Amino acid sequence: MGDAALMCDIKRTITVAGLTVLDLYSFYLQADTKVAAFQDALAFGAELGAQYAMVMGDDSNWHRMRDNPARFCDMAMPFGLTAVLEFAITRPLATLQQTTQLIVEARRSNAAVCLDPLNMLRGSGGPELLVGIDPRLFLYAQITDGLLGPGEPDLARARQNGPNIRRMPGEGVVPIGKFLDALSAGITLSLETPGPDRADRPATE
């Protein structure tokens, strides 16, 4: 099947399912990443109607971790895509403060923060940290819930404790309502949940 036929087939499948494409997930910016290699993926996603491209800062060199997202934004701009940077406790770009600083230094209008409340709660604190930050940086947020590990919230302990233990919304310790109240009305939300506990569950379940 040629590229054009494949694209038409994917578009048809999405339309028949009654879905739209929100984000491209995800682009890891590591020390040896060649940002230009992502161009075809961005073009493909934009053709499907995506609005956002999820970016993970996985580079311990601050200057390179700032410059590569700037290059990524420049490449995404012609496709109408916004780069949303997700900070995660297991990676060098780990906190909200780092992420907002990176965006300010990168100086790109199509860069924003992807907020994962569980990562934020485990590593640094709660929704009170959103107060005073330019709301234009928050176009996109994930709704997540889960559990804290021993000694959390604390970034050093969270890194030692390892990956997130996710739960369905309302079944963990994340104050989801307070996070939503701290964000602007009408921002784009995605839902990140744990996988099913049984492989035989149907998709609707």
Task: Briefly characterize the structure.
With 205 residues, the chain is an alpha/beta fold. Helices cover 34% and strands 19% of the residues. It has one domain (21-191): TIM Barrel, CATH 3.20.20.150.
Topology diagram in text:
Blueprint (H helix, E strand, L loop, with lengths): L2 H14 L6 E8 L8 H9 L4 E7 L3 H15 L5 E5 L9 H11 L4 E5 L1 H7 L16 E4 L1 E3 L7 H7 L3 E3 L8 H7 L5 E4 L14
Parallel strand pairs: 1-2, 2-3, 3-4, 4-5, 5-8
Antiparallel strand pairs: 6-7
Task: Describe the protein in words.
The chain is an alpha/beta fold and 205 residues long. It has a single domain (21-191), classed as Divalent-metal-dependent TIM barrel enzymes (TIM Barrel, Alpha-Beta Barrel). Helices cover 34% and strands 19% of the residues. It contains seven helices and eight strands, in the order H-E-H-E-H-E-H-E-H-E-E-H-E-H-E. The chain has helices spanning 3-16, 39-47, 62-76, 96-106, 117-123, 155-161, 176-182, and strands at 23-30, 52-58, 82-86, 111-115, 140-143, 145-147, 165-167, 188-191. Strands 1-2-3-4-5-8 form a six-stranded parallel sheet. The model has no long low-confidence stretch (mean pLDDT 92).
